[in-house]
Hints:
By secondary structure, this protein is of the alpha/beta class. It has a single domain (8-317), classed as Rossmann fold, CATH 3.40.50.170. 49% of the residues lie in helices and 17% in strands. Strands 4-3-2-5-6-8-9 form a seven-stranded mixed beta sheet. Helix 1 (29-42) links the parallel strand 2 and strand 3.
Amino acid sequence: xxxxxxxxxxxxxxxxxxxxxxxxxxxxxxxxxxxxxxxxxxxxxxxxxxxxxxxxxxxxxxxxxxxxxxxxxxxxxxxxxxxxxxxxxxxxxxxxxxxxxxxxxxxxxxxxxxxxxxxxxxxxxxxxxxxxxxxxxxxxxxxxxxxxxxxxxxxxxxxxxxxxxxxxxxxxxxxxxxxxxxxxxxxxxxxxxxxxxxxxxxxxxxxxxxxxxxxxxxxxxxxxxxxxxxxxxxxxxxxxxxxxxxxxxxxxxxxxxxxxxxxxxxxxxxxxxxxxxxxxxxxxxxxxxxxxxxxxxxxxxxxxxxxxxxxxxxxxxx
Length: 318
């Protein structure tokens, strides 16, 4: 569970023995499971659970958001799109321009399908376990708006708990004030192979690039950069020929949660933790704007065509 290609170092985290825990998550099914699993493991040590909420868009607002996405990716503005269409149609022909012009629409659709299927995969993988975990959750999440989570009033609320650990899964990039609101360590769970794959949709990018050895989960000390802090644990999930990409993603998340629990238990027991510093220029940070239809359909094609199954069998033979 350690990234052996990086030199280790020991970080003292004293006074953790009686330390309490704050949890911040996004609102998905896997995020709820993360919080409930930590409550099962640590009981009353968990003193607060905050759930980041995002603005709810009306149907009209959603259409406007898609329109702006298309305009930004295609040509910068509606008028610019049609002017570009006419100009390039003369140069490259109608078929090629239509294909490229529709790409942002395909990407918006792929993003919608991707998030729906992630939720379906989470419920399939975690549904039975959630029935077991729900009665053990002694806290319900307190909602905090996406635009409030780095605000001074919220930071003061975090500090008032006088907690030792802040454990996070999902949400925005947390600023220095949030990260330093606890006495000990802020620890993040990332569904990717840091430092090579940081940011958003990193399981999908590793599958798309067929780097199955880098389909991983990473638990790390949080810094202000995306998934960039010192690594505490990193490991690969079990992958089976019968899996979908979404079941693999859910297993990546489940693995990360268990590594998070293990890391917190070690700090409480030993008063220190072994970490592995990430080089600041290592790997790539993916953003949500990098997710497009080529990524989505490329991964699905590997699974539906049998290529994923063949490559996984060869990897296991090796």
